[in-house]
């Protein structure tokens, strides 16, 4: 297939693009290589993709509508995976406009380009952050998500609503994936595993929020990519069982689906740090801090629907995933 991947220089986008190329798809990677974190890491991810004859790259911001339209027009994708976004919960407290520009303006540009380009299927990144103040665990796609606790989460919920509108009005098949804390080699430097590893190796204290008591459904990047590909290959149609008198939050009379994509085995942050210490062979000096604004105490993914519809089955425990990350980190940074 011809697949356009936005955010192709990102953590998940680059790993997904590699897998698509490996199975013979033609991939156009779109990314603006912004400076939210180390651009040299983004370029290094791209350098793994560029040797493939099926890969082309366009340095484009999804907020730039004419440039994005040109990329769609020239490549003519059959399917699209939108992973480009302004990420991060805490940064949304400092720079809210970045989230409006990328996650709202950028996403409507992607939807419009898919509509006019007659794209067969749009898969897009949502987030477990949409569950916000919810406390019933595990989080289900059937739960109400009307109480976000960060602007980042609000923009991701807005993406789901915007996608449904386009599925309803124009018959554009869309699938939203609520990612649960993704980690692994080539990961993001602003995320906990990367920050902890760098600081522990440097002999610096690490900030442990909520005193290490909160839990996260940490999901290894290869398991995430497997789930993305399985959903990409399954174009949704209208749900024949959809009842407008008792509406489902995860499907519709339109060609629209929502799924959680996680490991479904939450791990306490303190345990996550213990595994990392074992892999590094060093103990962390911990600076225990309260829960930060915009953060949630716990996440846990109910992935029954994704398993039922696609056969998705995460296979990587944190002990294995963290070891693979540490091995990569030592190689990449020569530590």
Outline the structure in words.
The protein is of the alpha/beta class and 335 residues long. It is built from eleven helices and 13 strands. It has a seven-stranded parallel β-sheet with strand order 3-2-1-4-5-6-11, with helices on both faces. Helix 1 packs across helix 8, helix 3 runs parallel beside helix 5 and helix 5 packs parallel to helix 6. The longest helix has 21 residues. It starts with a strand and ends with a helix. The mean pLDDT is 95.
Question: How would you sum up this structure in a few lines?
Answer:
This protein is α/β, with parallel strands linked by helices. It contains 11 helices and 13 strands.
List the helices and strands and how they pair.
Layout: E1 2-6, H1 11-22, E2 26-31, H2 39-49, E3 55-59, H3 65-75, E4 79-82, H4 91-94, H5 96-116, E5 121-127, H6 151-170, E6 174-179, E7 182-183, H7 192-202, E8 206-209, E9 215-216, E10 219-220, H8 221-232, E11 256-261, E12 267-268, H9 269-280, E13 286-289, H10 304-310, H11 318-333
Parallel strand pairs: 1-2, 1-4, 2-3, 4-5, 5-6, 6-11, 7-10, 8-13
Antiparallel strand pairs: 9-12
Helix pairs in contact: 1-2, 1-8, 3-5, 5-6, 7-9, 9-11
Looking at this protein, list some descriptive labels.
single chain; 335 residues; alpha/beta; two-stranded parallel ribbon; 11 helices
According to DSSP, the number of beta strands is 13
**Structural class from helices and strands?**
alpha/beta
Radius of gyration: 19 Å
Strand content: 15-25%
Q: Enumerate how many helices there are, as a single number.
A: 11
Q: What is the strand arrangement across the widest sheet?
A: 3-2-1-4-5-6-11
The topology string of helices and strands comes to EHEHEHEHHEHEEHEEEHEEHEHH
- The overall pLDDT, averaged over residues, is 95
Return residue spans where pLDDT drops below 50 for at least 5 consecutive residues.
none
**First CA to last CA: what distance?**
40 Å
Q: Give helix % range.
A: 40-55%
State the assembly state of the protein chains: single chain
**What would you call the shape?**
globular
The largest pleated sheet is described as: 7 strands, parallel
